[in-house]
Amino acid sequence: MIKRDITERVKSIAKRIPIITITGPRQSGKTTLVKNVFPDYKYISLESPDNLDFAINDPKGFLNTYGQKLIIDEAQYAPKLFSYIQTIVDEIKDNGLYILTGSQNFLLSEKISQSLSGRVIILNLLSLSNNEIKKTAFRIKDLPELIVKGLYPRLYDSDISYTDWYPSYIQTYLERDVRNILNVGDINSFRKFLRVCAGRSGQVISLSKIGNDIGVSYQTVKKWLSVLEQSFIVYFLQPLYENFNKRIIKSPKLYFYDTGLVCSLLGINTPEAYNVHNLKGNIFETFIISEILKYKYNFGLTNDFYFWKDSSENEIDLVITEGNNYKAVEIKAGETIKSDFFKTLFFWNKLNPNTNTELNLIYGGSENQKRENVNIYDWKSCTDIFGEK
Fold first, then answer.
1. Which of 89, 124, 159 is the C-terminal boundary of a domain?
2. How far is CA 381 from CA 4, 74, 80, 247, in A?
3. Same structural domain for residues 84 and 110?
């Protein structure tokens, strides 16, 4: 097993809180994680029809049968359990009683907030990070190969090819889970929607343009994207537009959490195809943003993330805030550092001379250095912008 960066955080929280809920996309390793962190706990999956029937029709009997120190996998399928769990934890007044997992955050979070508020901590587990595999036998030194393969655990614990795995993942999970929730009748429109979104990863999003491309309404696109977001397939990076005099873009940017999924949807099946693709820069940016998000979730960082862009196309790819401190981050796929990589960073600094801003560049090369007051990180070291853990 590849040790997950979130492991120590999970163990610590279990000593202080009665219930832990771990959400994340399908196949991100949630079950493997909790079974390894809590080897003495009983494990029940509600994907089993018998277990689900028991939990739905006799929730009290279900919990009495399996007791405490219990892992309930895909708990969102039986929300009636939560009220009974609340009663139990209030009576016992102990910590680490229940571990809940779920891949449908839109169902799980709503029910938890209604029944278990104040008794639960919700953690997000995404797919593997490069930070987690780079010191293991699974390390991939070649960036294009890593980007096209992606970082879902199943691709590393089996011999299956990513060109076989992703189409199955898309059909089995995205088309089954998301379409069932949305009650999408036209599978072709939904498939086209997924491909169109993949082609816009790393870009400012326009719901109306996506709708026009696939022939559905603005409201339909908004609803479909909301479910993809809650399923941990896509992420919206919000713009930073306060305290600026110039006209600032106020629409969010869309990112997929996994570049292997993006590449599969776009038909990019080899590292060579990625290297010559016209969206290479956007896909690289998607990879970096995903790595930084995983680091935030795994270590519980409190920083807020934004991007900044004005009407003249000046853009900072990522702005990390903590209080009144800023980290401005430019992301470039190029392997050779060029002077124009710094252009927008210096523009930002002149625009905000009174702010406490640290300038950073993350690029596709292999050396870390400092140049002209800019911290430069290679792609393997992108999370070093937060300091050492």
1. 124
2. 17, 34, 45, 34
3. yes
Q: Supply the CATH number for residue 57's domain.
A: 3.40.50.300
78: which residues sit within 8 A by CB, 6+ positions away? Answer: 46, 52, 55, 56, 59, 62, 72
Query: Which regions of 196-314 does DSSP assign to beta strands (E)?
Result: 203-204, 234-237, 253-256, 304-309
pLDDT digits 0-9 by tens, 137-173: 999 999 999 999 999 999 998 889 999 999 999 988 8
**What is the tally of structural domains in the chain?**
2
Backbone φ, ψ for residue 219 (5° rounding): -65, -35
Query: Which residue in the block uniquely carries the two structure tokens 């995983």?
Result: 294
| Bridge partners, 358 (sequence order) | 327
Does residue 246 contact residue 352 with C-beta atoms inside 8 Å?
no
| 2 inside domain | no
Model confidence pLDDT, tens digit, residues 87-106:
999 999 999 999 999 886 65
Residue 373 Cα distances to 67, 176, 370, 376, angstroms:
58, 50, 6, 9
pTM score above 0.85: yes
User: What whole-number distance in Å separates Cα of residue 15 and Cα of residue 94?
Assistant: 9
Please indicate, yes or no, whether residues 162 and 229 belong to a single structural domain of this protein.
Answer: yes
Are residues 110 and 187 both part of a single domain?
Answer: no
- The domain containing residue 223 runs over which residues? 140-235+254-280
Q: What are the Cα distances from residue 94, in Å, to 36, 84, 190, 203?
A: 21, 15, 46, 46
- Residue 31's CB is within 10 A of a number of other CB atoms, namely 17
User: How would DSSP label each residue in 173-205?
Assistant: IIIIIIHHHHT---HHHHHHHHHHHHTTTTEE-
Closest Cα to residue 265, out of 194, 356, 186, 200? Answer: 194
Task: Identify the helix (H) or strand (E) that includes residue 46.
Answer: none
Rounded Cα distance, 102 and 25, in Å: 8
